[in-house]
Amino acid sequence: MTQPAETAPGNLPLVAVVTPVYNGGAHVAKTLACVQNQTYANVVHVVLDNASTDETPAAIARYAGGPVPILTRRNERLLPQIDNWNAAMAMVPAEAKYVKLLMADDLMRRDCIEQMVSVAETDDEIDFVHAIDVFNDRTKPHGLDPSISVYEGREYGRRWMIGEVTWLSGSHMFFRAHPDILHETFSKEIFPLMDMEFIFRRLLDRKMAFVFEPLIFTRFDERSVTARLGGWTSYLVPGFRIFLKYGRKFVNDEEFARIDLDYRLKIARHHLFAKATGRPIADEIKTGVAKEGRRIPLTDYMLAVVGWPMHKLRSTLVRRRAERSDPTEFVPERAFIGDRVTVEP
Questions:
Q1: Integer Cα distance of 258 and 162 in angstroms
Q2: 52: exposed, middle or buried (Cβ count in 10 Å: 0-12, 13-18, 19+)
Q3: CA nearest 20: which of 105, 116, 77?
Q4: Of the candidates 36, 25, 41, the residue with the CA atom closest to the CA atom of residue 66
Q5: Within 13 Å, how many C-alpha atoms sit on residue 129's CB side?
Q6: For residues 129 and 120, is the Cβ–Cβ distance under 8 A?
Q7: CA 197, 201, 207: angle at the middle one, nearest 5?
């Protein structure tokens, strides 16, 4: 039998957890379970199955009788990932006040929704809430001052662009469900960083809050879309595109010039490495840069090669400084799954 959530619904605002999934059989049962385990009472789980061919439909059906209602639909044909994400967002009930994006291989702690709603309700201008992310069992340094939990959106965006905020997972976004952003939520122009582009779009005139607890768990799966696209290299050009689109709205001219150069040299390094190792993503990097009206000049390649040792040294020093001020901690996956929910087959 299912066990009830630990808080009474009362007048609690409705939170829609949104999970687009395609062939998520390896992990989706755990993801479904962590939603069923939430201590916050007024939750609905929106699950859009993108024509999966594995055990995903059976896993969804298994949890259909849990304490958290599941609103589910199955696409008749396979959609591109971003179309599936947008279709899932369009399924959010009109009465939902907040949305929590949750990938089919990620998790959240039992009190995640409860804590995020609690901080969001303190200020109507708080549009996003984030938390410490556990990435494959280790907490990711965030670079924030634990004494400050709410930021003006532009200031938070600036800190991320100049590198003071060291980690921000768009795939774990928790945001206010404004009706105007639940249809075509994600831009096809900035795949696969459409979630990050969405965050920067909203940060321009809203606030961002942070919970200094390890509430979310991100898994990097070699079978994921990110891995198949080329790993973290696949984020380079989309990240540059976000910076070019929003950078001047968050940083000053001097900061913009420095970040622009950093991006260009990073792109040149990755392009050289991809070409040398015969990786197909090399052509995608060059094409992506060209779409922005840019090219990778010879001087960028030269600076990238000559400056490689200094770049490695600087990266190591930055990482060590971040780890000293914000040390990582081990948090096992089982801390996010729990065992409170038993669903009858």
A1: 9
A2: buried
A3: 105
A4: 36
A5: 28
A6: yes
A7: 120
Closest CA to 130 of 196, 82, 190: 196
- Residue 51 carries which DSSP code? S
Which long-range contacts link 161-167 to residues 24+ away (Cβ below 8 Å)? 161/243, 161/247, 161/250, 161/251, 161/255, 161/259, 162/251, 162/255, 162/259, 163/318, 166/140, 166/141, 166/142, 166/322, 166/326, 167/133, 167/135, 167/140, 167/141, 167/142, 167/143
Q: Which residues contact 203 (CB under 8 A, 6 or more apart)?
A: 127, 128, 153, 154, 156, 157, 250
Residue among 9, 13, 17 nearest 45 (CA): 17
* pLDDT digits 0-9 by tens, 246-268: 999 999 999 999 999 999 999 99
Give which of 230, 237, 342 is closest to 288, Cα–Cα: 237
> For 205, which DSSP code?
S
Q: pTM of this prediction?
A: 0.89
Mean pLDDT calculated for residue range 212-239:
74
Task: Report pLDDT for 232.
Answer: 58
Each residue's pLDDT tens digit, 107-153: 999 999 999 999 999 999 999 999 999 998 999 989 899 999 999 99
Q: Are 186 and 82 in contact (CB under 8 A)?
A: yes
Taking CA atoms, 10 is separated from 35, 110, 121, 233, in Å, by 19, 19, 15, 47
Name the 3-class secondary structure at 285: helix
- Strand partners for 210: 130
Of 132, 154, 151, 116, the closest CA to residue 248 belongs to 154
Q: Measuring CA to CA, which residue among 335, 333, 328 is closest to residue 139?
A: 328
- Set out the domains of the chain in order of their start, with CATH numbers: 15-225 (3.90.550.10), 230-325 (no CATH)
153, 130 contact by CB (below 8 A)? no
